[in-house]
Structure formats: C-alpha cells, structure tokens
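Note to self: the last two entries modelled the partners one at a time, which told us nothing about the interface. This time every component goes in together.
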Amino acid sequence: MTGLTLDDLVQRLRAVLDGPGRAVEAVVLREGWKAALPQLHALRLEVKRLGAWAPHLTPEHGGMGLSLVQFAQVSEVLGRSPIGHWLCNCQAPDIGNMELMHTHADPSLQARWLMPLMHGEIRSCFAMTEPEHAGSNPVWMSTTAVRDADDYVITGHKWFTTGADGAAFTIVMAVTAPDAPPHKRATMIVVPTDTPGFSIVQNIMVMGERGGDHASHAEVRFDAVRVPVTNRIGSEGQGFELAQARLGPGRVHHCMRWIGICERAFDLMCERAVQRELSPGEPLARRDTVQHWVAESRAEIDAARLLVLDAALALETRGPLGAREQISAIKFHTAAVLQRVLDRAIQVHGAMGLTDATPLAFWWAHERGARIYDGPDEVHKQSLGRAILKRYATS
Amino acid sequence: MTGLTLDDLVQRLRAVLDGPGRAVEAVVLREGWKAALPQLHALRLEVKRLGAWAPHLTPEHGGMGLSLVQFAQVSEVLGRSPIGHWLCNCQAPDIGNMELMHTHADPSLQARWLMPLMHGEIRSCFAMTEPEHAGSNPVWMSTTAVRDADDYVITGHKWFTTGADGAAFTIVMAVTAPDAPPHKRATMIVVPTDTPGFSIVQNIMVMGERGGDHASHAEVRFDAVRVPVTNRIGSEGQGFELAQARLGPGRVHHCMRWIGICERAFDLMCERAVQRELSPGEPLARRDTVQHWVAESRAEIDAARLLVLDAALALETRGPLGAREQISAIKFHTAAVLQRVLDRAIQVHGAMGLTDATPLAFWWAHERGARIYDGPDEVHKQSLGRAILKRYATS
Amino acid sequence: MTGLTLDDLVQRLRAVLDGPGRAVEAVVLREGWKAALPQLHALRLEVKRLGAWAPHLTPEHGGMGLSLVQFAQVSEVLGRSPIGHWLCNCQAPDIGNMELMHTHADPSLQARWLMPLMHGEIRSCFAMTEPEHAGSNPVWMSTTAVRDADDYVITGHKWFTTGADGAAFTIVMAVTAPDAPPHKRATMIVVPTDTPGFSIVQNIMVMGERGGDHASHAEVRFDAVRVPVTNRIGSEGQGFELAQARLGPGRVHHCMRWIGICERAFDLMCERAVQRELSPGEPLARRDTVQHWVAESRAEIDAARLLVLDAALALETRGPLGAREQISAIKFHTAAVLQRVLDRAIQVHGAMGLTDATPLAFWWAHERGARIYDGPDEVHKQSLGRAILKRYATS
Amino acid sequence: MTGLTLDDLVQRLRAVLDGPGRAVEAVVLREGWKAALPQLHALRLEVKRLGAWAPHLTPEHGGMGLSLVQFAQVSEVLGRSPIGHWLCNCQAPDIGNMELMHTHADPSLQARWLMPLMHGEIRSCFAMTEPEHAGSNPVWMSTTAVRDADDYVITGHKWFTTGADGAAFTIVMAVTAPDAPPHKRATMIVVPTDTPGFSIVQNIMVMGERGGDHASHAEVRFDAVRVPVTNRIGSEGQGFELAQARLGPGRVHHCMRWIGICERAFDLMCERAVQRELSPGEPLARRDTVQHWVAESRAEIDAARLLVLDAALALETRGPLGAREQISAIKFHTAAVLQRVLDRAIQVHGAMGLTDATPLAFWWAHERGARIYDGPDEVHKQSLGRAILKRYATS
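The predicted structure of the combined assembly is written out below.
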C-alpha cells in the first residue's frame, strides 16, 4: 500500500473530493462528463501523485494492492462524488474488465489492452445485456460468435453497454455453443471498437440524458464483426462462469459506492437542515420529522455498511460460492437504503434538491437503476430466498 | 359543453393521446419540448377541432364550461401524457393565471394579456418562489415592488418560474407593504417579459435537464423593473389571498393529472408484464410479486381518485375554506401514490424503464417534485394535522 | 327504515356506543365477553328499542331493510366498539348465516333455525377452515358428508369456527362429491351443536386469549355426525358457490367495520395527543411527527372508506361477479390501512396503548387476523392481479 | 467462562431451548408463566448444570464472566424462546438490578438482596414509570421519598413495574430533591415488597393478558412506605444517572434478544413455507412473495445484528457516553426489524400464526411494546437526530 495507511488514503481522497473535486463535480453535473474531461484529467493526475491510483491493482501494476475489504472502504469514500472512482481508475466497467483480463486473458491480450487500461490511457466497455431478453436471465441471449478458421464472426445487438462511447475495446458475451447447457453456451471475446461491423447505434437516453464518454450507456451492434480467436478470454463456453466471478467483487464495489453516496447525501441533508430556515431563526433541523430522518438514515447506513463489509470479508475468505448468499443480500438491501436516504435528503432540500446545486438529483435519477443493474432486486431476493428455503426443505 | 358528453370528450382525448399523441410524446422525450414544437402545435389544432379546447374556460371564452369535478376527470385523461394538458391549453401555470386574471384583473389587463392566453397565442409564467427563502413559507419573500407615482418598481430574485422561457408575461409576487401583517404584505403584478430589467438568468438544470419553452423552470431577476400600477391584479396586499385561492383548484388539477400518470404507468406495467419473458414462455406476469404490484397499484390509484374527486366536489360546494383540509390531504396522499406506482412500473420494465422508450423515466425524474412543489408533503401534513388536533384540543 | 333517516340512525348508535356502551366495552376488554353477557344483553334491549335492530334484515323480519351501501355506513359506526355489531345482531358469522339461510334454506330450516337467529335468541357458527389445509385454498378440504339413506354422515376436523362456544347450530362445509371438479365438491349442511358426534375440542388460544361465547374461535370435530338431508342449504355441490356469494357482502361488512375501528383509533390518538404532555405545557400534539400521523391517517381512512363504499355500490348494482375485483381490492387495502392506523394510535398512547384502557391493544392483537381471515392479503392480491393482467394479455 | 467456548455455550443453550425447552415454552404460551413454574424451575437446574448460569456475572458470583459482546451473542440464542433469559437468570429487570447493585449498593444491601438474586432464589422489580407522566420524559415524576431521621418515607404511584408479582423487593425511583435541576432530583431506593404501605394494585392487562409472576407488569402504590436510608443505591440525586448507566447494556440485551426472536421467527417462517401446501405438491415456499420475505428478513436481521454487536463493542470500549448515539440507533432500528420479521412470519403461517402453536402470536402482542419500552422510537430518533445535527450546526 505504498506506505500509506488505509486511513491516510481515505482522508486524502476525501480531501480531494470535498476540496478541488467539488468544482469538477459541478461541471459534470451542469455540463456533462464530456465537457468536464480536461478538468477531470487534471484532477486525475493529482490523485495519481497522491499515490491513490488503482487501489484494486497490485503494486507491480501500478496499483495499491488492497484487499477487497480495504478496497471496499476506499470505494465508500470515492462514492461521495460521481467522479470519485474514475479519478482512481477503478470505475465500472473498466475495473471489472481489468480483474477479468488480469486472471483470464493471455499475455498478448494483456499487453495490448490490459496494460494501457490499467494506466488509464484507454477505456473499455462490457457488452452483455440485450434489449430483446430480460437482463435478469443472464443465460438467455441471441448474440452469436461463429468460429471461422482462426476468427470469430460476431453478430448481435446489445444495450446498456456502459461507456462504449470513446472506449477502445469492448468485451462481448456471445453464444458459441447454442446447443450446450445454458450455462456453457457463451464466451467472452475482446472486440476493439474500430473493428469493422462494430457500431454504436446511440447513447441511450437514460433519465432524460444521453450522457457521453465514460458517463453513457450505448446501444451497440455487432454486424459480422471478425476478430481472431486469440481475443477470447478464458475458454469457449466459460463466459457465464467468468461473468459470475466478475460480479461478486463488482457488487461489493457498487454497494460500497452506494454507501458513499448515502454518506454524502446524509451530509448534504444535515447541512441543509441546519442552514435552511422555515422562518427567521427556525431552521429545518428543529423539526422532529427531520431529526427522525437523520436518525433513521444514520442507523440504516451504518447497518448496511457493516453488512457489506461482512460480505466482502466472506468473499475474500470463503470465495464466490461461499459468499453467494451474502452478495445477493447486500445488493438489494443496500440499493433500498440508498433510495430511501436519497429520497429524504432531497425532501429536506426542497426545490433545490431537484437542481444541479447538489449531486442528489443526479443520483435520484441515475441510481434508480441500482435496483435494476447487476440483477434486479427481485432476482436477488428470489435467489437468496430459494437457497435458504431449500435448506429447510431438506432438513 | 358543446354537445359532447363528458365520456365522449374523455374518449376523444384518450384516442388522441394514445394515437397520434404517442409520436409527439416520443419526440418530446427524446429531443425535448422545443424540438417538438411544430408537431405539438399541429396536434393542438386537431384537439381544438375536436372541441376539446380549454375545458376550464366558459364557452364564451372559447372553453367548455366544465365544473371542477368534470374538469378533474378530463385532467386525468390528459395526465396520461406529458403533452396532454398543453394540448388543451390547460397546462400549469397558464391555467392558474387564466383563472386569476379572469376574476381579478381589470378589463384592460384582460384584453391585453388574458385573451391571447386563452386562445393559446401566448404563454405566461408565475414568479413566486425565491431561492433565498423556503418555498414552504409563502409569506416570507424579499422581492419588493415600490410605488413610484403611477408605477411599481420591482426588484427581486425568483426561481422555479415554470415556463418563463418563451413566456410573454409573468405574474410576480412582490412585497408592497413590508410592515403589514405577513399575509397582507404581497401584491400580484403583471410584468411583460420584454420589460427592461426583467431577465432570465438560466433555465435551471432540473434532474439533469435544462428543458426549454413550456417545459422549463427559470431563475429570473427583476432589476428595477418598472410597470404601471394598472398591471396589478386585485388590490395591494391581496397577493397571498389570491395565491391561496389559486392553489385550491390547482392542487385538484395536479392530483388528477397524477392519477392520469398513474393510469398510464399502470397500463405500461401491465403491458410489459404480459409481454416480457424471463425465459421462453414465462412472462413476468406469472410472478406473484408482479401480480401483487398490479393489485396494490389498482387499489391505491382507485382510492386516491375517489379522494380527489371528493375534494373537488367539496371545493365546488363548500368553497376554498370548507375544502382546505381535504385539499391538503389529496396533495400529499396522491403524490405518494404516484411515486409508488411509478416505482413499480419502472421495476417491471427493468433497464428499459430507465430509457426514453416510455415516459416513466421522465416522470420518475420530474415528478419527484410532486412531493415538493405547491407545498412540500410536510407542510400539508402539518397543516392538516394541526387543524384536526385543534378541534380535539378545544372539545 | 322505520322512519329513521340513515343519519339519525348512525347518530343514535354512536350515542349508545360512545355513551353507555363504553362501560360495557370496558368489561369485555377487562374480563372477557362471557363475564359481560348480562350487561351486553341489557344494552342490546336498549338498541332494539331505538329501532336499530338487524339493519341487514327486511322490516318483515324485524330488521331495517337497509341497502348494502346504507348498511355499510351503519357498519362503520358499529365498528367503533368491539361490541357494536353484536348489539344490533349483525355480527359475523351470524349475519352471513342469516343471509345464506334467508335465500337458500328451505322453509322448515328457516322456521327452526333462522327465525330465532334473526331475533337474537340463539347464535350460530360456520365451520369451513381446516387446520390441515390452507384456508387460502377454499376448495381443498377433508371433511366429508356421506349420504346414508335420508341422512348425511359428517366426519371431519375444523378450526377457527368463530363463536362455536354457545352456538345452537353450525353450518358446515363438507365434501359430498370428492370426484367432482374442485368447485363442485362441497355442500353446506346445518348441524345443531347438540347432535351426537359434534364436539368442541377447544376454544383456540388466539393471541394469548381463549375467549368465550361469541368472542371465541373453536377447534371442532365431526365424528360421524348424522343429520337429515333436509338440513342441507342449497343443492349438493353448491357449497363453494354459496360460500363465494356469502363472502362479497361479508367483506364489505368487515371493511366498513375496520373503517369504524380506524375512526375510533383516530379519535383516541387525537385525544391522547392533545392531553398527554411530554413536559408541562408541551402536549404530544405539538410534535410534527404526531401531526403527520394524524394527517396521514385521515387521508388513508377517507380514501379507504370511499373505495369500500364504491365497491358496495358495485356489488349492489353489478352483482358479485361484476364487483369481484373491487371486493378483492378493498379487502387487502383496508386491512393494511387498519394496521397502520392502529399502529400509530398505539404509539401515541405509549405504554397505555398496550393496556385495556382503550380497545387499541385488543384490536392490535385480534385484528392482525384481518390480513388473514376471509382470504389472506396474498390471495386477494394474486387474484386481482391475475384478473387484470389477463385482460392485458389478450388485448 | 468455565472452560466452555462461546460457541459451545451457544450450542448447548440452543439444544436446551430447541429440545426440552419447547415443551416448557408450550405450557407458558398455553397456560401462562405461573402454571409453568415447576417445569421452568426443573429446566433451570438443567441449565445451571450445563454451566450456563448468569452469563453476565463474574465467576466469583457464580456467573460466566462474559464481556458485553459475548453476552450479546448468548442473549441472541436465549431470545429464541420467551423462557430463555429466565432460565439463565439474566432476565429483565433482574439483570439490570444486579448490574446496578453490584456496582452501587453497599455491602449490606448486597448481602441481603443481591446475593439471593444472583443465585436465582428471589426475584426483583424496578418501579420507575408513572401512569401520570410520559415515560419518554424520565425526569418528570411525582413519587417522592422524604427524609425522616434515618428513613425515607416514599409515596407514589407506578405502573409497568415488570415482575412485581412475586418479587422480593423493588428498586424505586423517587424524587428526593424536588428543587434540584431535573437530572439531579431522583434517587434509587430498595423497597422490600413486604414493607407496609407497598401494594400491588393489579397486574395490568397487557394485550388482553394479566400474566403472572415474572411475566407480568404491575401497577403499584407506595403509601408512606418507610425504609432505612441505607437502602439507597448510590448517592442522593444520582437516580437518573444510574438509570442511564443501567440502560445502555439493557438496550444491548433487549436488541440481541430481539435478534433471537427474529431468528426463531425466521426459522418458523421457513419451516412453515416448505411444509404448508397451497394445493397438493405446491408449498408456500414456491411463491416468490414468500421467497422475497425470507430474503428481506435475512438481510435485515443480519444487518441489525452487526449494528447491535458494533454498539456493544463501542459500549465496552468507549463507555456509555461514547456509545450513546449507537445505543439509540440500535434501539429503534432493531425494534422495527423485529416487527417486520414477526409480521411476515405470521402472514406465512396464516391462521395458525395467531394461535399458541408457535410463540409468534405472543411476540406480536407483547413485543409491540418493543417500540415503546426503554424509550419510545420517537425519543431515540429525536435524541440521535439532534445530537448529529448539532455537530453540523456548529461546524
């Protein structure tokens, strides 16, 4: 960890985000990610200088070598701002792609794509969800990759490919064995975005915003896209398995990021409550309704954080299978806390909460997806509920 | 009512909104209100030809002469689309301004501003809320109108002035008697938007969108804006009283519009549930979770509608004072139902619910304000609760 | 309606319940129903003298000939006390049995059992639910009635047979045609409780109370109970159909009774809030939390009442089939409002809310069943949700 | 810890409660605590033999010398049954009295009352709450103790004195310095229950049950009760301070007991869901609604447990003042989880959930008080909210 304690690191990152980061965040909220790129890159350099680069990577790759539990705590502080994770180069979906390629891509793929990704020189994306099939059923997809000599020829239609706009490559999930058992059908393949046949149909309008660059979700097409078989990650048919492995830590990252959002929303709520007067000398903070919201939010956030850290520890010590139920639990539980806390913080802000004066409106709109992406609440609840009930049935 | 029964009228409007209106709505959602203006105006003509123009106005003013209860039912069907009310020229804030000027503006003001407003030739806005003071305390404001011979000189800062962008005039609330009792301090004055000193600082970013034209909320400044005293509506110091009178029917309109949103969201939820398959042959509609959401939404919407119509009837028969408690009740109750129904509908849609493929995302973002504008939930709950408890205290 | 207007009637009944009824209610809460029987019967005579007897029966049967919508309004005021319905002889399950026998029992059965029931000389019960089968699946039962010459020989095990303790007869649902389609298997049969083979195993401990007499729920056994076939109600195999017909009005009765409970709880909550001081001169009513609870309860109760009355009207005008969905909606919606309102009223009372000083604790304990009896929430939600979704599927 | 690991201890206690404890629990539920006393005492001996006696006491006093965090974990397993804590002699209010007297009573008081209490030979109670004053304001009371030579003469009226029925002594809170600042007015005094002037007015009907012995809540009177000043605990005016100190660990005990209740309710819910069929071969566990309830309960219980254990650790390491906010948070947060989990478990059980077949009904009725006793939710939320907001106000 390059000499920094975890506490130091967290304090430093917080100082950046609550300090110079605020101005950059304001540009992102007001003018969009693309417009803020110069300031974003400048601030990124500063973060790098602090030694806070790529907390998830090993020191030999320029990272900080944090354990998952340590990284989770860093993820919380980064979550305080929409720009936090990107500044440290640990933003989704790139972080997931790094983890995946680090373990499962062959050296030449790593040299060509992983290295510059780890250095923040390029961005990547991950094309899995298809508009025609429920994202909640990850084994049901129509995109195919057909072997032709030493190439795959990929044809399909994806959406919610986050950050495709400006990405150097995508990892695509495509069916290579349509007749195999459902969990063995798909394969992951690296597709450079300048490959003929790959196209971005549009940046999807999400909550009224098209977004751009890293902050966008694209609809993309693969129209007989041809790439060499060496672009494959892992083995044929291993796609679903790799996606699952990728999701465990990914959900911990998301959940801790949401805790960070909650903490920022909590600060904003409390600050507003003590400053905003309903009449001269009568701040909102005097209302017991507001006091209750503050108290409920405090309890919910703290309980959720402990639950997520416990799941992170389980994932580290017992592996993906051993932690599967806990990972499901944190996903829906934390997303619900997030929505409640944001709701209260906005209500305390009144009309101002709907504007770009704080990131609350951004999160209200864009984190409505927290209960949908990476598996909707209902899928996680069903999966956890079934797993538990099964044990009672056989006992 | 120009020969149409209420049922006929509702059916015709629904046919427009669910028919040709869908394409126009799609442009609004995808490209914004301004981009859709040509199509919007074309469709407006069609609506006018149907005899569905200005349901709230008397026939002599080109309207339909509906009672409040009847109009409420029309408002529901118009609420099915973000473009509904505008098509019939009964959109907020213009409708409130029409009602106000119809009763309280002198004939010359009416001739100059009300007539073209009723004909849909111009738009207007209403400047009341100030960023420096809690909107929930309507008697606390800093904008002043100082009498200077036959003029008022107005100075102040307002925001959330809906539709200021492109409006021909605003009605502004300004303090004319700073030392009067709080409810007697303010006066309403018509200010043409081309008056020197009036400026739009910005269309406020609301939930990540600046919007434009009718679909925008402006921050505006009055910098020694001079208008003749004849531009006053009502008498000096009557501003708060007029605002209150304006709010009763306004809240019924909003609530019934929200019921309309709920009904559209309900339709979308049900349609999606029967169409979307989780796996081949297994539609979402088979899940009892989804069945429960449908049932709960049905009960909540129907109960809320009955409550709103009952309040509308009370307002018609017992007047603003007699209906005050009911109006408070419908405001927070219906806004809560709206948010729950939208939430469920989005969840059933999954990722698609976050996009512009339906108006659900638009409403999720922009109707978060429903629990804030026209008095936040907490103000209405407190006011209703206190009024009730007072009766128990003195009994 | 014997010269009384509905309003008069409601006022009179309210005067009884809020007047002399309170002392009787207190005995019921403190010592149980059985101990209060002398006072209960004395008060019943008073109610009879007021002309408020049996509002659901026709004048020729000594009743008031109210429509369902009118009766619903009476049911609300009676619901204000646990003793209300019994005082007017319109308590469940007797009222349902009267309605059933009035239409479907032959004259000799009517003379022998219905007449004294209508006059309040005897009580009855209804044995349907079986401990071995989910009550939510009304066509699945094990109790059989085997034809033997001119008799039925009934064998089975029932529970939650309300009021069996002290009842003169029960109506039992028993399978007469095990191989018929599920909805045609069962038959309703009158069984006098002194018939050999009929026994009460126990009054079930419900929420820690065994109860007694009318206020009890029994586990009963039918051990080769022999009754003449003329004791049948309706035709063989018609049991389920008759049970369904019985349930529609029954649910309206329950829902309006719950509204009455809500109103009483609301009064208690408001009275306590203005009287109870947190410190000298600082009543609970000053807290905005309490004000909000009052406001939310007011809105929820009023909306629920309108929904129930609307369903009652539908049942009267469109019949059971036409009102089926609305009946499902009111059942779960009103039960939920009931639980929320009781919860708030108890919380305002603090420790006192847990005691017998008010009926709140009684209702908290015994109306937890409101979300279970006559079909659990989940059955009604599923049934309503499916019916609605089916229309979307085929459209 | 007498050679047992914490895990061993927990396993042994669980084996007792889920084994022979079930029959004793059933008697308690069906016939009441008093009727079950012989079986209870027999089982207590067995627990003592296991070495699981008085986990909160030091070995020299016959206890196990557990830390608060360890005891919290024991408290969870004991919470699985209403008889659990009593079996180990760590039931409220005796445990609080032991902790109090251990630290603050002089040796002669300890010898006379604490020793037999620690050995389980007598029971005690704690008389603080008064019917005339809100329990949520602990400094407002009317009971006085007037110094008369070497005696206190105590006069007052208390209620919710848990377990007074059969107790050997009570500790009473009485005002000794009416003119002191509110937090310095009261003193704690030991009053043997056979002292002239002490009387139990009644065991209060709580949720329809009077209860008896340990399982009762009494209304008591102190009518010029005379005890020597040496019966005082701590110094004069220290009553409130001691009560506060007593409450911190007390709330941890309660919260962990509630977690235990949740876990038992969770087991019951799951067992019922896999066993109960809606139709042949279709268990409740197949419903996604039930699966969701199981999942939500799992997440909520686990998060709450972590929050409580974290607060217990804070209390041990940072003391009452340092842990004050966390203690408030766990009190209302865990009580809310408890009510939700019980609600779901009952709903899954249907009518059976209302009976004495499980302890669910007992808890539904008697743990409604969890949101009231030891400070109602609103007091804890307000206190926590204010403490937090104060920091923001001054920053």
